[in-house]
Amino acid sequence: MPQEPMTAVLGRTAAVGPFFSVRTNAGAPGDQGFLPLAELYGEGVSPALRNRLETVATRLGTAEARVAASLVHQGLAGRLWSIALGPAVLAGRVPDLAGDALWWHPDRSAPDDLWLPFPSPSPSPSSSPLPSPPEEDLTSQLRAAVLRDHLVPLHHAISAATTISPKVLWGNAASALAGTLRVLHDWCRSTGHREAAERAVALTASLLETTPLRDCGTLDPTVPAYSRRSCCLYYRVPGGGLCGDCVLRGT
Description:
The chain is mainly α. It has 6 helices and 5 strands, in the order H-E-H-H-E-E-H-H-H-E-E.
């Protein structure tokens, strides 16, 4: 039986919510103001990243570069985890997000900020000739698609752009993953997809055991709920407060 096209998989996943949606029609994203997301992590500090940090700082009303940097990072992490974990949970497949495949618009928000013009499945990163168990293979693909190809280079780029603790950035990545799990798990349960809800928890738990996310917090898989060991700095935004998983709630 032929596999369901990745375009259809992503279309079904979009039903979970705007963060899980990505534009998939063919076209010329560059003509509409989109740029390859990987340009954000170019050599040194790219103009695209510099502009994004300045734009977010202005919108938030903060003069602290590290606050804007943290929230730029967490927002992108949430989008990437959502469009990767959703298809993995609902269809057992991860889209290829590498290189110039995924395009991003600096002035738009979810669901209009990401465009994957020619969706295709992610290749398995395993070099072993022996097949892996499905959950293990999906974890490896998610790790490669999100952590290796995006969050690690984004971490390096943001660290070069401003002084910010690596603990904050990796805490953001873990927190964004846990937030993706909460939304996806709730949707799966409310729509009768109980096995998918369990798969979402299992995959997230495996990813949170991956370096560098392992020491960022604690997942309670029974809720599910996450408690991080750092703070995204949102409380320093004028009118901001503490997030539900913030370490400062326990102090």
